[in-house]
Amino acid sequence: MRAFKSLIIIGFPLVVGWISLFLGTYDISPLEVIKILFFAEEDETQRAIVWEVRLPRVLLAGITGASLSCAGVVLQSLFRNPLVDAYILGISAGAAFGCAISVVFFSSVPIQIMAFICGLFAVFLAYTIAQVHDEVSRLALILAGIIVSALFSALLSIVKFLADPHRLQNIVYWLMGSFSLADWKALKIGGGIFLLSILPIFFMRWRLNVLSLSEVEAQTLGINVKRERLIFISLATFAVAGVTSLSGIIGWVGLIIPHMIRLLVGPEHRTLVPLSIFGGAGFMITADTISRNLVSFDIPVGVITALIGAPFFMFLLKKEGYKSWGR
């Protein structure tokens, strides 16, 4: 039964990605999409729509969802808290602030570098605020994440106030999360960041089983807890910062998908991590397909994920099972 569920999760992004290629304001039949992808197609308009618009957008959405979901698994395991992800801990807000100041003030510095630095600072700031007598409680960490998010949101508002009108319009729309500007160049950047951040997590995923234990238990098993946490947090932050620099702030994915996959296949990270990657990719492609087909114009995909994520977060808060994760 678990193998069947795993096959469905793995096939999910492939199916919705395929469907997304022929859905849009310009109708292209599934047969025409096959011809365009695998054979010569005379209609240059349809070919351009599939190859230059929809395909890079679908792939970038998949990479983004996979990165956010994988980062959510890592953070929930490290902090032993199913109610945290990059969005709630303030990493997304910190990365967005880094992107904004790079665009407005430091255009010579790559956006991804500034996003990573500010995102990393945000998560360590949240953890430091929540830490009392070398202990971090669930409630304190969530409250610290809210504080850090509010701080970086305020700083971001200052940047928007100082930005010129042309850049301000782009920043505001970008902050709501969108793949409308996806192209092959953005996909290459996103793919490179995915390989540098998510691939190491995938190969080291068995260590998350140990790190999800208490610090004393992990140390008795020969794990350098501080070093391992630093590595995983840095990789997760780099992944989130990278996709945020390309698609803006998209919340809730790292909260919803890992929890759903955990309910379906259990908490074993050797299975949980890869399936969360596939599940996150499928969820994000679905959300983006809805955002560009629901009405005649693109709705920011961050709005769609928030409409799904907020009720799910309320469900988690009410659910008694999350108490098994510790304090």
Structure commentary:
By secondary structure, the protein is mostly helical. 75% of the residues lie in helices and 1% in strands. The protein has 14 helices and 2 strands; from the N terminus they run H-H-H-H-H-E-E-H-H-H-H-H-H-H-H-H. Strand 1 and strand 2 (135-136) form a beta hairpin. The radius of gyration is 20 Å and the shape is globular. The two termini are 32 Å apart.
Give keywords.
about 325 residues, mainly alpha, ABC transporter involved in vitamin B12 uptake, BtuC, two-stranded antiparallel sheet, about 0% strand
Any chance you could write out the topology, listing elements then pairs?
Elements lengths: L1 H20 L8 H9 L5 H35 L12 H14 L6 H20 E2 L2 E2 L1 H25 L2 H11 L8 H20 L3 H5 L3 H6 L4 H23 L5 H13 L3 H25 L7 H18 L9
Antiparallel strand pairs: 1-2
Helix pairs in contact: 1-3, 1-13, 2-3, 3-8, 3-11, 3-12, 3-13, 4-5, 4-6, 4-11, 5-6, 5-11, 8-11, 12-13, 13-14
